[in-house]
């Protein structure tokens, strides 16, 4: 069994969970963290560390958020491992508890989101 990062992590990306993971199974995307289900050892340490309650054991994922099991598996394959705590996203506390954030999930390259100015210059 694995653990699953769910909807409430989007646009928050607190990384308290990363520091307690003994197997480095977290992967960092622009505005979300994903757990590699092949690496997770089901230790449960990350669950209590998540300040927005976004991590659940696979069998306890809230109704309607089961799709995050596949999302975690997909994104963990393309994003880099994160093993150290970094600051949460700017405004993370404002996103805590906002429902149905999946349309906001940035599936792009892992790491920090592109700044709006950089997006403008890249065009």
Write the layout of secondary structure elements.
Elements: E1 3-5, H1 16-20, E2 26-28, E3 33-35, H2 45-49, E4 55-57, H3 67-78, H4 92-95, H5 116-122
Antiparallel strand pairs: 1-4, 2-3
Describe what you observe in this structure:
It contains five helices and four strands. The protein is of the alpha+beta class and 123 residues long. The protein has a single domain, classed as Alpha-Beta Plaits. Strand 2 and strand 3 form a beta hairpin.
Keywords for this entry:
about 10% strand, disordered C terminus, alpha+beta, about 120 residues, single chain, Alpha-Beta Plaits, two-stranded antiparallel sheet
- Given this structure, which CATH class is correct? Alpha Beta
The helicity comes to 25-40%
Number of helix segments?
A: 5
Main sheet: strand order: 1-4
| Biggest sheet layout | 2 strands, antiparallel
Binned strand content: 5-15%
Would you tell me the overall average pLDDT?
91
Q: Class by helix and strand content?
A: alpha+beta
Q: Write down the domain tally.
A: 1
Radius of gyration: 14 Å
CATH fold assignment: Alpha-Beta Plaits
Distance between the termini: 43 Å
Number of strands: 4
Write the H/E string, N to C.
EHEEHEHHH
Query: What overall form do the CA principal axes indicate?
Result: globular
CATH architecture: 2-Layer Sandwich
Poorly predicted parts: 114-123
């Amino acid at each position: 069994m694995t653990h699953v990062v769910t909807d409430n992590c989007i646009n928050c990306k607190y990384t308290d969970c990363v520091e307690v993971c003994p197997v480095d199974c977290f992967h960092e995307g622009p505005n979300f963290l994903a757990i590699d289900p092949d690496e997770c050892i089901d230790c449960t340490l990350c669950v209590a560390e998540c300040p927005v309650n976004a991590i659940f054991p696979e069998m306890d994922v809230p109704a309607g958020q089961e799709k995050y099991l596949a999302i975690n598996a997909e994104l963990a394959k393309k994003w880099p491992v994160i093993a150290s705590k970094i600051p949460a996203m700017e405004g993370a506390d404002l996103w805590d508890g906002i429902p149905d954030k999946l349309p906001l999930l940035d599936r792009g390259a892992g790491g920090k989101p592109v700044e709006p100015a950089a997006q403008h210059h890249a065009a």
